[in-house]
Amino acid sequence: MLIKGLRGIYRYRWLLQELVNRDLKVKYKRSYLGYLWSLLNPLLMMVVVSLVFSHVFRFNIDNFALYLLCGQVLFNFFSESTSMAMNSVLQNAGLIKKVYIPKYILPLSKIISSFVNLLWSMLAVLIMFVFYRIPFYPTAILSVVPIIYVFIISYGVGLLMAVLATYFRDMVHLYGLFLQVLMYLTPLFYPADILPDKVLMLVKCNPMYHIVTYFRDVALYGQLPSVRDNVVCIAFCILTITIGGLVFKKYQKNFLLYI
Predict the structure, then answer these.
(1) Per-residue pLDDT at 104 exceeds 60
(2) Which pLDDT value is given to residue 140?
(3) Under a CB-based contact definition with an 8 Å cutoff, are residues 74 and 212 in contact?
(4) Taking the C-alpha atoms of 182, 185, 190 and 195 in order, what is their torsion angle to the nearest 10 degrees?
């Protein structure tokens, strides 16, 4: 199944490229700053949230602004990419009705176009590292690993949500509520060690907790990830891509009846 899917992606790579280019052009149409908004948005949000949480709640976190930004850019990617992938089948109903294409390319195009925005946001992270004079640790090279993990997890979730949204339109609204809950279950603006043990166990069931912690450890704190950290993240990748892929494969044949 995996090899067949990769072959399909390679065969229709030209279509995938066109879909990604279209999404990026539509997003920044009539915008003077264009891609710079992907850099400015996390910086502006970081400033606002940092002022609120660092002064009102006074969490004892060193380099709180960067602590926040490192988690924010990854969670925003997951949120944006999966939300876009959820609507990918519905938005391309006209294309699906006219010609045959591997339908799993549609959610993938949304994930990739959102990934381009993530790369710009990572530039914002780098700028803030320089601004705050954070030392560059050799482990920072490993920051690409959690980025790969979150890409795979987002694609798996995107495949699942594309099916659910096509069959049940209410999922478009319910997923927004789910992302809000997930955001609070991810230690973006608070340290995980303040949570009671029972709550922390629930938080650790959230893959974004492990992804964000992994990224902060290697980029911000210079800590090498353990084997367990990688095993947990890989397990989430396999789980989400397997469930998403199987559900998508089973129900995609009836998409024409629901779009």
Answers:
(1) yes
(2) 92
(3) yes
(4) 170
